[in-house]
Specification:
There is one protein chain. About 85% of the residues lie in helices and about 0% in strands. It starts with a helix and ends in a 9-residue tail after the last helix. It contains 18 helices and no strands. It is mostly helical.
Length: about 425
């Protein structure tokens, strides 16, 4: 009973920490985005968003699924400092090598593609986010279930560099400061996080054997594929819109999508908080209660958001545009499916050892998603059909996961316990 009480106290602490973090991640962009859109204009904002979509592919490569594989390993060995140090060292070495690969690829793109060369400074300024990802061992804090430190670091750095945007971005020509300041925030947060790792957890950096590094790569590879499928497909839409519809439409789509993913982070908070807990305890009865409560809260927020979308968009961005409003409605129509999909994915399937099914649901969904967007862009060139891809992704992903949950009977046997 004492251990259960301790676990639940830690869960509550982690939940509040992640809620504060996600709240800051939602609110701070909502403070800066209206200002940025007004100062830069929709087209330049679209250009900045397009460059971010390209750079985020490298961010996914650097992460390599460690936020799931390394989190799980550390959560199971967190009392063994030697083992945790070994995992930490192996992951950081792999991420360092992937960062060098990413830098090389970006440089090749800049020197070989005209549109990249014309905006080389923009891409390199945005690329600083990738370096910040390399430095920040998010997976370590999650695995140790000490998420309050993540919150302190991210919120403080974000607040500082959010305020600096208002200082440095005064006109359209100042657009370079937007990615530059975001990158500096990520890098400073990463440096401070590493300092905390060595100070608080007494982690020692060691040179792991080749076999241990290869083992980390192999264990993370399925998660990496699922992250490529999930996060990569999100940025694929922005990339396609930029190539086929131009920066103005990218701007409208990004404005709606930013609010959509801010809302979707509600599911992410619960998912990230409970994933290490469920990996250890398998407490499905408690998690089902949390699942139903989260779904209820999501629906209560979603209905007025969709109904009053024009007022919301005008309030946030100061823009009244029919295309923007229509894209917003289409995107948000599938939000509840995405929330539920996040809640029954890794905290349920992966935590119960069904990692293959959790990953496959993302991979198969993303294949359908990418094929759909590509065909629509090539043959119809209709932005509303492209925006509908997020509905398809959320719904199909949920169907895959419910099918797998039913197939392995995770819920059923425990209902009589």
């Amino acid at each position: 009973m004492k251990q259960i009480s301790k676990d639940k106290k830690r869960l509550i602490s982690n939940l509040f920490s992640l809620t504060a973090l996600r709240g800051a991640n939602m609110l701070l962009p909502l403070i800066t985005l209206p200002y940025i859109v007004r100062v830069l204009g929709v087209e330049t904002f679209g250009l900045v968003s397009f460059s971010l979509s390209i750079v985020m592919y490298f961010d996914i490569l650097i992460s390599f699924g460690f936020e799931l594989s390394a989190t799980r390993e550390i959560s199971m060995h967190r009392e063994d400092n030697k083992k945790v140090s070994e995992i930490f060292s192996s992951v950081m070495i792999i991420k360092g090598l992937l960062f060098l690969v990413s830098t090389s690829i970006l440089t090749i793109l800049v020197f070989t593609i005209d549109s990249f060369r014309e905006n080389a400074i923009l891409y390199y300024a945005t690329f600083g986010i990738v370096f910040g990802n390399f430095l920040f061992p998010l997976w370590l804090f999650q695995g140790m279930e000490r998420m309050k430190y993540i919150t302190y670091i991210n919120v403080s750095s974000r607040v500082i560099f959010t305020l600096l945007i208002f200082v440095f971005v005064k006109e359209e020509q100042d657009y370079i400061f937007v990615p530059l300041l975001n990158s500096l925030g990520a890098i400073s947060g990463g440096i401070y996080a590493l300092w905390l790792v060595f100070r608080i957890f007494s982690i020692k950096f060691t040179i792991p054997s080749r076999e241990k590094i290869i083992s980390q790569i192999k264990s993370s590879k399925p998660f990496f594929l699922s992250r490529v499928a999930n996060r990569g497909s999100q940025y694929y839409a922005t990339t396609i819109i930029g190539l086929f519809f131009g920066n103005i439409v990218v701007g409208y789509y990004t404005m709606a999508a930013k609010l959509y993913f801010a809302f979707m982070s509600l599911g992410g908070i619960v998912s990230q908080t409970f994933y290490p807990y469920m990996s250890r305890t398998k407490n499905i009865i408690f998690y089902k209660k949390v699942l139903y409560i989260t779904i209820g809260i999501s629906i209560a927020i979603l209905i007025p958001v969709i109904y009053f979308n024009e007022l919301l968009l005008n309030f946030v961005y100061g823009v009244q545009n029919e295309m923007l409003s229509n894209i917003f409605i289409i995107i948000f129509s599938g939000a509840i499916f995405g929330i539920v999909s996040a809640l029954v994915g890794f905290p349920i399937l992966a935590a119960f050892g069904e990692i293959k099914y959790a990953n496959n649901s993302l991979i198969y969904t993303s294949i359908i998603y990418v094929i759909y967007i590509t065909l629509i862009a090539l043959f119809f060139k209709n932005i509303y059909f492209v925006a509908f891809s997020l509905f398809i992704s959320a719904f199909v992903g949920l169907m895959f996961r419910l099918y797998y949950i039913n197939r392995v009977k995770i819920f059923r046997p425990l209902e009589t316990v």
